[in-house]
Write a structure and sequence with these properties.
heterodimer; A: alpha+beta; 7-stranded antiparallel β-sheet; 5-stranded mixed β-sheet; 11 helices; disordered N terminus; B: mainly beta; 17 helices; elongated; disordered C terminus
């Protein structure tokens, strides 16, 4: 299995496909090399590191220093490959015992910080207190993004807020106002809708992509021109699970600058210079697809009640807590993903549990039902 | 790429043509009583009556079904109206001193009420010096002379001017200045003062040469136009209010501001100056209010009628609205509940008749029209066939029942006749009989039910143009209220003088607001109904043709289900009267269920076949078996964080949080001040001031102009547990093989609960089902992710048709639902419509209205639309009214937008809230507290006035009589925007459709005005902008929609009898 690791090779036989690895555990160094193009799997690499350092009985975490000198984790195939491919030329690997590693953070400046911390620790000696146990980040979820940069005028910004599964409030207010447009007749004042306030700690504020006095031009691809404040409010709330708003930022200095027109994906980016304020709907359609949007959109939750047992064999009720009654593979996948997403937070499956409990707030909701009937069978969720 | 192809489906010419054959929008007729009437006129020859309103509307009424409507361009109050007798022309005087001439005009074979001329009198002498027109100050009175050729105007300045009516131009040189009158008076009558404004002008029936002029200061003269001199002078010493010249011209009666009237002989001898024969103050001797109008009507049988308004003793009855009718020794003081606007008598006006012989007295009040029969002893009131005061008690809910079986209809009519006996003799029936109703007898009977604040439910015949009251049901008798005997006490306390008689039915004062009716449901086959009210009372009633005396069984249901931590701070429940109670024939209560806590009922549904009634409040919903009189199910829908719902309606004004915050602030303030608060008046004053100041400068949030928070709905929003809709259906909930009774409930927070019901099967031959308990088992709970309130739920059968109503299928009144194909449930929330498959609830089609249009759904109904071209072709569609007042129509189950129209102003919240759809594509909404506007979305099913009027006035020499037809209304009488004939999308669609629509608006052609014509369908393409919402469902829909017409055609034979369920929420 370890064929890809050319342990015996030395640096004198330098060939471009080999990556020199300097692995450090405590004060010990080990050196070996990897094939840059076929680095193999993370598990094999882990075994190799553990073996070379003779650490078979202990749990370790592995990190590496990237080109910027940041300490980044190696804990799956992806970041292992990334680490090997980005090594130039030496791959510096840091091995730590897991319990020790918990104290330090990966990330920018982690290496230098760590040095200082370690220096301090040596002085402090044994009086150090156990740091709070913070696990490694296992999964990430986008909360916002700027989309359609290639087709929008540079003065506009299309922001997507992923509210799904987020505990934060969206957290912004809109108001009526007037904006000045350049038209054939010259400057013209037209009514517009603006962001008036950000709720501190809200999703909108935390993304930094929206700001007070930004003019709202579109909501999920539909222009708000000619719509009242209330209509725009309703449209935003109706789309709040996956809100895409196109704004003209009040602060135009942070705009995304397109590198060049020719490097664009296609000819689409020759966009609406004629009427920069009314985007042709074609652009909207070509870039973010409603189907796509809907895919991770609201799926209404259906809870099967405790009906009389059914003859159909497919109705195997799952044990409580594991929400597994699946209808279709893609849906099942989505459900699982969503559950793990929400489960990754501090509260485990709390959010889904809360949702469920809000649905059947009163367990004794039915006269005809035996008390606790629902709990007995456990709710099965279908999406 | 795909999207563009599918979007083009909207422009499919075949579908467009079909849409035009199915859908058309008209506002057709206003039902009820005009809001804020201000003027009244009657044409005794054509027997038509006109009512003018403060918003400048003119309504003309004749026989039931004969109606004409017009609206002045300026929304000024109509102060006076005068018919040109027999000509179908009407002269109106507005508040802004302008005169308008209206005609019932034939136009391309049809006709409508049209303003032909208007005249604004010059208010100042011509500045340019060239104008010879005399200055005209404000016009106070109008008199038509010479068979309507000339109008005589009395002015505030005291002069009398003449006007050519045909051209509405002043006749110069005929003006009669007050100086000229003064000059011709004897010296001893001149008092050196001006005469004052002209208060009254009266013409002589036989001698058009003479005019009786009354001046405000009290002087009356008879002016001879030919001799241009005063013939008679009557010296009144009181401020003049009104005059009446008796038919033969021998007597003049004048009424005055001090509550007196005087009778003057007009033809005694040759004396120029005459004294009154009699001057009386009828309600003296204490100071009285003015007699505003007086009429003198002679009778062939001897004696005469004196009818006057006002004149009541100022101190004791100054606040009454009275009309007194005096004949010989008989005096009746008609005591009305609202202000008297005007009145007239229906009497003979033919010159050859010697006497007036009044048949009827019509009194226009602020809120109703009352007609008294003067020929029947006792002068009873004549029930009005139209102009019913819908708002006699405020309308709290309404419902429409279509296709009422003839049997139930006949029972209702006969019960109504028992309630208000119809006049026996034909002579004393409704006296305003002008015109002929040409509309066909309605093909089906429609019943409009209105629930009122005082606990009554009124049944209206909504089949035709005239909304006729049928029957009134009162639920107040079942409950003990504090105010029960007040009426009789008041009656007893009153003296015999003046002889008051209560007339009219307008009674806005509710005994107890808890009696208010919130929801009504009627089963038209079993004549059972359920009425649910403000204090959580749910009443099941049954129609009985005989009076009975029986006790009502009372049950109460706790919808909280022992939920802890909530206290109800709202009103108490109503206490029902105990023991057997006498019930008149009609709907008699059988079962009363009271919800606990007694919050207002927000949804109700009835299934007579299963003997079940379901009801919901802001706390939960219940299911009751009214046959066994036992509760089946109670379910609490409250969210634990929802404190608002529990505190009841009183605390809604000020939330607990707010009041807590304020009191904390107050405490903090007092602490900061550092001294103990002395309980004296000054500190209290300070505190009050501080509070005022606090209220006056609110937080900075409220200072910023208008802003809206963007936040998704969450589970703990307040009032999230309100049950918005309930629905019974026989469908597949458990599995795809066995169908059975189900109950569906939807809440404000987007939750849907589906229960499978175990209802014992009715054995054949017996009406009642066996005495076994009904069971309910929770089948499904659906939480809509967007959490918008669920407005309506309906189950669609295998063919995508709504399930029939109870008994419809089992009695072969409707096509049985398709139980073979898979059923689907349509859930309409405030934000989107969604169709889910059954029994496995998975989304099939949807339309996200709010995401696209930014509007929210207010009312929803499934309606059948019949084609104007093909009698048998119908489609079931979803009609929906939004919070912007627009009406949208969607296909079912594809949920494709079909057409949309703007219907109600979006500011008219009560209008939007009151909207009711019928199941054949019509609808009603309140345009004022007293008027329903009727509109139709269907191109075929239109209820509008079609009437003829025989007009004597020859405008062309060739024909004497016009057969006039009223057109679909082109303008709205109440000032709401007119019909939008050309929808928005016309801009995009090719020009033919557009020019058609525009042409129809501007120049009504015959085709437009005949409702059955294809060309009248002016609904050009109104595809909604579906940008960004084409899903797989749409694709499927597209594929199936091309087959739909054929499928429908295949089913036409069955479709005829087929009807759909209407959701009236």
């Amino acid at each position: 299995m370890n064929r890809s690791f050319h342990k015996s090779q030395t640096l004198r036989f330098y060939d471009c496909s080999a990556v020199e690895v300097k692995s450090k555990f405590g004060a010990e160094f080990r050196r070996f090399s990897l094939d840059r193009h076929r680095p193999g799997r993370f598990e094999d690499f882990y075994q190799l590191v553990v073996h070379t350092h003779r650490l078979t009985s202990t749990d370790v975490t592995i990190g590496y220093a990237d080109v910027h000198g940041d300490l980044l984790p190696i804990n799956n195939d992806d970041n292992f490959c990334k680490a090997v491919s980005s090594a130039c030329p030496l791959l510096r690997v840091f091995v730590q015992k897991r319990e020790e590693a918990d104290g330090c953070n990966f990330g920018a400046g982690a290496l230098s910080r760590k040095r200082r911390v370690l220096a301090a620790l040596r002085e402090e000696g044994l009086r150090r207190r156990a740091p709070p146990a913070i696990g490694l980040p296992r999964d990430f979820r986008p909360v916002s993004s700027i989309i359609d940069v290639d087709i929008l005028p540079e003065t506009h910004r299309r922001v997507r807020l992923y509210r799904h599964g987020c505990e934060k409030p969206l957290g912004f207010y809109i108001r009526d106002g007037t904006s000045v447009r350049v038209t054939a007749q010259g400057l013209e004042k037209v009514p517009g809708i603006f962001i008036s306030r950000m709720v501190p700690g809200g999703l909108a504020e935390s993304t930094g992509l929206l700001a007070v006095n930004d003019e709202v031009l579109e909501v999920n691809g539909i222009e708000v021109a000619g719509k009242t404040l209330d209509q725009a409010t309703d449209m935003m709330i109706a789309n709040s699970h996956n809100l895409i708003i196109t704004v003209k930022p009040a602060n135009q200095r942070n705009n995304v600058v397109r590198s060049s027109r020719t490097s664009g994906s296609s000819g689409q980016s020759t966009d609406s210079t004629a009427s920069p304020h009314s985007l042709p709907p074609a652009h909207v359609l070509q870039n973010f697809h409603p189907d796509e949007m809907e895919s991770d959109e609201e799926a209404d939750i259906v809870i099967e009640g405790a009906l009389v047992p059914q003859p159909a064999p497919r109705t195997q009720l799952a044990p409580p807590g594991s929400l597994t009654r699946i209808n279709g593979a893609s849906l099942a996948y989505r459900l699982n993903r969503d559950l793990t997403l929400s489960g990754s937070g501090r509260e485990g499956n709390g959010s889904i549990h809360r949702l469920l409990s809000s649905l059947k707030a009163d367990p004794r909701h039915s006269l005809a039902l035996p008390p606790g009937g629902v709990e007995e069978h456990g709710p099965a969720v279908t999406l | 790429m795909m999207k563009f192809r599918f979007r083009r489906q909207g422009a499919d010419p075949q579908r467009e043509k079909l849409k035009q054959e199915l859908f058309a929008f008209h506002k057709t007729v206003e039902h009820g009583f005009p809001n804020q009437p201000s003027a009244l006129a009657f044409d005794p020859e054509l027997r038509i009556m006109a009512i003018g309103t403060r918003s400048g509307a003119v309504r003309i009424y004749g026989a039931p079904g004969v109606e004409f409507t017009g609206l002045h361009h300026d929304a000024a109050t109509v102060t006076q109206m005068h018919f040109l007798p027999g000509q179908g022309r009407l002269l109106t005087l507005l508040d802004d001193n302008s005169l308008h001439l209206w005609e019932i005009v034939p136009h391309n074979g049809c006709a409508h009420l049209e303003e032909t001329l208007s005249f604004q009198p010059p208010s100042r002498p011509g500045f340019d010096g060239t104008s010879t027109l005399p200055s005209l100050s404000r016009v106070t009175v109008v008199l038509l002379v010479d068979a309507g050729d000339r109008a005589v105007l009395g002015t505030e300045g005291g002069s009398v001017v003449f006007l050519n009516v045909d051209t509405l131009t002043l006749l110069e040189g005929q003006t009669l200045a007050p100086d000229e009158v003064l000059r011709s008076l004897p010296d001893d009558c001149r008092c050196g003062k001006a005469l004052g404004p002209v208060e009254s002008l009266q013409g002589h029936l036989q001698d058009p040469n003479k005019i009786l002029i009354g001046y405000s200061r009290g002087l009356l003269v008879i002016w001879s136009q030919t001799a241009r001199c005063v013939e008679r002078v009557f010296l009144g010493n009181q401020q003049l209010e009104s005059l009446c010249w008796e038919r033969s011209g021998s007597t003049v009666v004048s009424s005055h501001s001090d509550g007196s009237y005087a009778v003057w002989p007009a033809d005694s001898g040759s004396a120029l100056v005459l004294q009154p024969t009699a001057a009386t103050t009828p309600y003296g001797p204490f100071p009285c209010k003015a007699i505003n109008k007086i009429l003198w009507r002679s009778c062939e049988s001897g004696g005469h009628f004196i009818i006057f308004s006002g004149g009541m003793p100022r101190a004791s009855y100054g606040d009454r609205h009275c009309v007194s009718v005096l004949r010989a020794e008989t005096l009746v003081t008609l005591d009305f509940t609202s202000r008297v606007i005007d009145f007239f008598t229906v009497h003979s006006t033919r010159p050859e008749d010697e006497f007036d012989d009044p048949q009827a007295l019509a009194v226009l009040l602020e809120e109703e029209l009352v007609v008294l029969d003067l020929q029947t002893p006792g002068w009873p009131a004549v029930p009005a066939p139209y102009l019913a005061p819908l708002h006699s008690s405020a309308i709290t809910c309404s419902a429409h029942v279509a296709n009422v079986p003839a049997k139930l209809w006949a029972r209702l009519v006969s019960l109504g006749e028992q309630q208000s006996p119809q006049p026996t003799s034909s002579a004393s029936s409704w006296p305003i009989t002008g015109g002929r109703n040409l509309a066909q007898e309605p093909s089906q009977r429609g019943l409009l039910l209105t629930g009122h604040e005082d606990g009554t439910v009124r049944f209206w015949d909504a089949s035709g143009v005239a909304l006729r009251p049928l029957y009134k049901l009162s639920t107040a008798g079942l409950f003990q209220t504090d105010f029960e005997h007040t009426d009789s006490l008041v009656q007893a306390a009153e003296d015999d003088w003046p002889p008051f008689r209560k007339v009219g039915c307008f009674d806005p004062y509710s005994d107890d607001p808890r009696l208010g009716v919130q929801k009504v449901a009627l089963c038209k086959y079993t004549a059972q109904m359920v009425v649910a009210g403000t204090a959580g009372q749910v009443l099941v009633l049954e129609l009985s043709d005989v009076p009975t005396e029986q006790a009502v069984s009372v049950a109460s249901m706790d919808l909280l289900q022992d939920r802890e931590g909530f206290t109800w701070k709202g009103h108490d429940r109503l206490s029902p009267s105990t023991g057997p109670l006498p019930w008149p024939a009609g709907f008699q209560p059988r079962v009363l269920v009271q919800c606990l806590p007694p919050a207002a009922v927000t949804a109700v549904t009835l299934h007579t076949e299963w003997g079940l009634v379901a009801f919901g409040t802001s706390h939960g919903f219940g299911l009751f078996d009214y046959q066994r009189k036992s509760p089946v199910l109670a379910r609490c829908t409250l969210h634990p964080n929802d404190s608002l719902a529990m505190e009841g309606p009183l605390s809604r004004v000020k939330s607990l949080k707010k009041s807590l915050r304020q009191s904390f602030r107050r405490i903090r303030k007092s602490r900061v001040s550092g001294k103990k608060r002395a309980v004296n008046a000054s500190s209290k004053l300070q505190e009050a001031n501080a509070q005022l100041a606090e209220q006056a400068c609110p937080h900075d949030v409220e200072v910023t102009p208008v802003q809206r928070r963007i936040e998704p709905r969450s589970a703990d929003d307040s009032l999230s547990g309100v049950v918005r809709c309930l629905y019974f259906a026989d469908t597949f909930l458990r599995d795809a093989v066995h169908h059975g009774p189900t109950l569906w409930a939807g809440t404000n927070s987007g939750s849907v609960f589906a229960y499978a019901l175990e209802v014992p099967v009715v054995t054949t031959g017996s009406e009642k089902r066996p005495e076994r308990a009904v069971e309910a088992v929770l089948g499904k709970e659906v939480q809509l992710m967007h959490r918008a309130p669920v407005v309506a739920i309906a189950v669609l059968d295998g063919r995508g048709r709504p399930l029939p109503e109870p008994y419809e299928a089992s009695r072969d009144l409707a096509q049985a639902p398709d139980m073979q194909g898979g059923h689907a449930v349509l859930i309409a929330s405030e934000e989107q419509f969604k169709v889910f498959t059954l029994p496995k609830v998975s989304a099939k089609t949807k339309f996200k209205l709010t995401a696209h249009e930014g509007c929210r759904v207010r009312k929803v109904a499934l309606a059948t639309f019949a084609s104007v071209v093909c009698e048998d072709y119908t489609e079931t569609c979803l009609a929906c009214l939004t919070n912007l007042g627009d009406v949208h129509v969607f296909s079912v189950p594809g949920l494709r937008p079909q057409v949309h129209y703007s219907c109600i102003r979006k500011e008219d919240i009560s209008g939007i809230a009151s909207c009711v759809f019928t199941r054949h594509g019509q609808g009603f909404y309140l345009i004022s507290p007293s008027e329903f506007e009727r509109f139709s979305l269907s191109a075929r099913n239109i209820t509008e006035p079609l009437c003829s009027l025989d007009i004597r006035w020859p405008r062309s020499t060739t024909c004497d009589s016009y057969r006039l037809q009223e057109s679909p209304k082109l303008s709205q009488a109440n000032g709401t925007p007119g019909i939008i004939l050309a929808p928005r999308s016309c801009d995009r669609s090719p020009s033919p459709a557009r020019s058609k629509g525009a042409g129809d608006t501007l120049e009504p052609s015959e085709a437009t005005l005949s409702p059955m014509s294809v060309d009248s369908a002016t609904s050009a393409d109104t595809t909604l902008d579906t940008t960004g919402d084409v899903t797989m469902e749409d694709v499927k829909d597209f594929l199936s929609s091309s087959e739909e017409p054929q499928k429908n055609l295949r089913n036409v034979a069955q479709d005829e009898a087929r009807a759909c369920t209407i959701l009236i929420k």
